[in-house]
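Thread title: Can someone regenerate the structure for this chain?

I was given the following input by a collaborator and told the matching structure tokens would be attached. They weren't. Posting the sequence so someone can regenerate them.
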Amino acid sequence: MNQNIVIGRNPLLEVLQSEVELEKIYMEKGNRQGSAKKIFALARDKRILVTEVNKDFLDEISEGANHQGVAGVLASYHYFDYDGIFKRLEERGESPFFVVLDQIQDPHNFGAILRSCEGSGVNGVFIPMRRSVGVTPVVHKVSAGATNYIPVAKVKNISDTVNRLKKDGIWVYGAAGEGAQSLYQTDLKGKIAIVIGNEGYGLGERVRKCCDGLISIPMKGKLDSLNASNATAVILYEVVRQNETD
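Best answer:
Regenerated them for you:
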């Protein structure tokens, strides 16, 4: 599927109600009922071209996915750089709460991680330029529209980025099953960045050594770890809990 296509009514409504730009919208002929009517009205208000097409056309561009009679063409996704993330924080008067992803490759994991980031108040996500999934339509849909609100920065090197974050006064903790310190015994207050490793082999060795510390999630059952997106959610909400506790 073209990476600039958003399919489905709810994902398209999320985009229309955000600051993300759409070039055009395709709508199935005769499909103006319910939320499709709202999509058309919002598109008209934003002066976005709406073209009526046959269902076969929508089936083709969505490659068999459930498009619900609508599809939108995104303008190219705008990635931030390192300095851009901090400029945005300064403009908003926010304290750094970051997630750094070390070669996450599954778009479903990335989308779920972004959804947890948005819900927990993360204000910057860093991903490597290579060997990592980017913001695709699948990521957008799984994120439930979080890609519209979370700034994602592409960086050349994750270990260098971790070191730079530390120099900028941010405590950086890597999630690792063999982490010496339990998540719940770690002080996660203040300026924090959480590093999440690859789905298969976890954190890279260089990245691991750059972190201020490694933290683990206590596992009470037979399995020794959670998947990347679930682990991220658990850790982020522990950060939220600690920072909201007097």
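The domain at 82-244 is CATH 3.40.1280.10 (Alpha/beta knot).
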